[in-house]
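hey so u asked for the seq, here:
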Amino acid sequence: MASTVNQSELHSVVALVKTLTNAQLKDILRNEGLAVSGVKASLQLRIIDYLLVIERLHQGGQTDRYDNLRRSIYLIANRPLPGPSTPTQSLSSPQYLPTSSTHHMHPQHRPSPMGIPMSSQGITPRRVSFKESPFYTILRPLTPTVECKVREQTRDSVELKVVFDQDTAMQMQTDPQLLVMVYCAADNGLNHFTNSDVAFPHQVELKVNMDEVKTNLRGLKNKPGTTRPADVTRYIRKKPGYPNHIVLTYALTQKRFFVVANLVRQHPVRELVTELKTRNVITKEQVIQEMKSRADDSDIVATSSVMSLKCPISACRIEVPCRSAICTHNRCFDASSFLQLQEQAPTWSCPVCSKSTSFESLQIDQYVDNILKSTPSDVEQVMIEPDGRWSTIKADEDNGGGGGAGGVTPASEDDDLVEIQEPGTTPIKQESFSTPSLMVQRTPAQSREPSTTSSAARMSTNKRPASQVIDLTGSDEDDDDDLPVRPAKRPALNASNRPIYRPEFRASYSSNGLANGRSMPFTGQNGSASPGLNGGYEA
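ran it, structure tokens below
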């Protein structure tokens, strides 16, 4: 049994991996239980990284795994093995058959994804693959896939342990695009044959090294496939040999779930936008030809239309116009805004027509891009003709030709002013009058004599309709003409039966009698006038 690996031999295996096709690379990855998603460069890097990990295990004494992986690579490449390192097992052994034969084996006899013997306590013997995402590429699993059993009335926890080697820890410290993400999928009966959506139990809690992970693990309601894998990179200690414990606690589940921690390479949105610019684009000539074809159709009445240059997602002017190749409309959306939205909740539906789309179907529209580059940044709409010609819309057309700012007509000078009254108050009509012409007159005192007939007549003649407005702008003394006449009060007598003179009557006398240039006698109860001050009469 060899204790070390010849470096030239290792370089030969790596060089052979770089010459394989996509199908051959995926066969190797399937045999080792690794992810098969990504472009050719990602597949090669995934196999090489895994090969280096196995080579370190070989140096530690585990030579079987390296020898078997090396033989498998040469077998799939149809190349003769240069020299067997340690022929401990024959290639005809069921344990090392290709994937097509391995799938027909009983689960208990199939090798584990990482070559670790699986126990029956929560670890699934088969590997669960997930649907590909343009934002992440799974490089390799860091833990075995663990089964979350059904717990309809109780709660349970499963634990994953992530331990980095020296090289992986160094890469995690220097490359910010390398992430540790927890993937979970519900058991739908086809997990081992199809790619699964990311889905966590409804009641779930995720902790890494005793720290709770604050992230959304549910996605959008009633929309499978909108859940993102949980990024736990910030909670992981990137030290070689350090055991990072990931604990997933769940409750009240009616189906099984499978959970695994993967090493993932992240693809930022700006990188994806750059990739869109290098793809096949929707040419300007293609768009104009489609518009002319629709205009020539006798069943369709083609007229000019208004096309917005604002993104329906961000409501800002589009920078990189794109749309799906299967969409028939000309309106586009901004590539960066759309991809940022899909990164948060991957619904993958067109924001204009709601058709299902994908990252692979997105293309840059050169027709709209030409309009954006030919118009100022403040232009938000253009008029599109059926033959493909376009023109900008003037500002007065945008405002609808209304007079004044915002279409509001200013009020004329002849308009009446409207006074806003407080709730519960009666509006009062105000009459204008000149101050010098105002003369306050007081009802003569003799009209206040008690008379039932005159009082009743005054009440009947001075009664107003309910709809008449009361004028309160004048003096309070004017109200005496409108109110019923009160009967005269009897004078108060002192001990000698003489009337007591009150100061308010003097004021009344001086303010009325002298103001009118005459004296006002007061008739007492017995019909005699009482002499007052200043030669007048007082009550």
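Residues 293 and 387 are 9 Å apart (CA to CA). The chain has a mean pLDDT of 74.
lmk if thats what u needed
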